[in-house]
Amino acid sequence: MVAVGTLLLMMPFSTSSGTWNDLIVALFTSTSAVCVTGLSVVDPGTYFSFWGQLFIALLVQIGGLGYMTTTTFLILLIGRKFDLKQKVAIQQALDRPGMHGSAQIIRSIIATTLIFEITGVFLLLPAFVPQYGWDKGIWLAIFHSVNSWNNAGFSLFKDNLIGYQSSVLIVFTVTVLIIFGGIGYQVILETYFWLRDRLLKKPAKLVFSLDFKVATSTTLILLIAGTIAFFFVELRNPETFSSLSISDKLLVAWFQSVTPRTAGFNTIDIGKMTTAGLFITIALMFVGASPGGTGGGLKTTTLRVLTSCTKAILQGKEEVLLYDRKITINLILKAVGALIGSVGTVIVSTILIALTDPKLEFIQILFEVVSAFATVGLSTGITSSVSPAAKLILIVTMYIGRVGILLLMSAILGDPRPSRVHYPEENLLVG
After folding, report:
1. What is the CA radius of gyration of the chain?
2. Considering only CA atoms, which of 83, 8, 9 is closest in space to residue 44?
3. Domain around 296
4. Global pTM?
């Protein structure tokens, strides 16, 4: 998909100038779109023609849905039946315990995506059509709705959404799409079934899964904590919050808390935030969204497993519990592996860019790398000015972040070989 996107974005009809596009620009934009990141080395609204912008939106849509979901949907459209290999691939891609009902889940995912994106378009029309007319207004609504739901963050405005920081309609439409797009399809489906049962007054009560409980509670905590943190950290910053009214400050703080989870829209100049504000954003970006959604990052469930491990150690327990459910050792090891792999990728990428672009500040490099790895798309404004070598490093970082560090390492190392050998235990001083 990245290769096809690069080829399409290089074509003269994809640029507003009508000339062949630069290879690095096309490759960077295509990778950023497929990986639903949103980082860009050019202004998509002026650099690309309508066709170029359309290709970006399509790449974002395919990247947000995921390769297996898109492929399976195409198979369903042409009426083909799944063979065993395809069923196993779908089961692994959706992280389902069994292969039964995979086709129905794919249909539900596509339907959910269309419902939210079309709703987003209709909600954004009143904000764009009066200002830009029907033709451009409809396209702006479609483009930003697709990018919001898929947590990409590409914008056709030169200042992103800074010009609409006081618009309650745009802020809440975009943030709701970001939250639901990143929280995971399973959570949305369970919410739908719960609402359906309540409306139909069914006697049987739906028991929410552990995924639902962890994803929703962690997301809510991070959103509230992020809003409060940004409000007080940036309160006296004349470049961001200081000149705004109280209501606008709360609106911007809310938006800034949502967008690192992991969509690259912004309603303030990120490069003018305080160092504390930048570091809070880095932390939120690194955590990211929830599994099964369109966002990236370490994931909320991984964070909760790791914090529950810490809680168990401090309480002297030998079992890790979450909502009265025991977490298996395999899941704990997977969470630790994801953390180590993610931190390692960020450290290596940061060091490499620090070597290729030594004039950049450390906080700027770290911010850019975490934004790329967590497929966020926020930037302090250095993306277009970094060296070609740094752009290639960011491309690789975005790819690793979207594919997943554990999945990528498994693909490189091959299938694990089971062993019957067991070794003796021995204590080790830790911490």
Report:
1. 22
2. 9
3. 108-413
4. 0.89
Q: In this structure, is residue 25 part of a structural domain?
A: no
Q: Give the chain's mean pLDDT.
A: 88
Give a yes or no: residue 298 inside a domain.
yes
The Cα–Cα gap between 157 and 256 comes to: 18
Count of C-beta atoms within a 10 Å radius of residue 202: 11
Contact 257, 230 (CB under 8 A): yes
Q: Which residues are CB-neighbours of 421 under 8 A, at least 6 positions away?
A: none
The tally of domains found in the chain comes to: 1
Quick one: how far is CA 163 from the chain centroid? 23
**Using an 8 Å Cβ cutoff, are 239 and 319 in contact?**
no
Tell me the HSE value of 135 on the side-chain side, using a 13 A CA sphere.
1
pLDDT computed for residue 408 by the predictor: 78
Q: Are 35 and 6 in contact (CB under 8 A)?
A: no
Q: Which residues of 160-171 are buried (b: 16+ CB within 10 A; e: fewer)?
A: bbbebbebeebb
Residue 34 falls inside a structural domain: no
Residue 16 belongs to some domain of the structure: no
d(CA 338, CA 345): 10
pLDDT of residue 78: 59
What are the helix and strand counts (H, E) for the chain? 17, 2
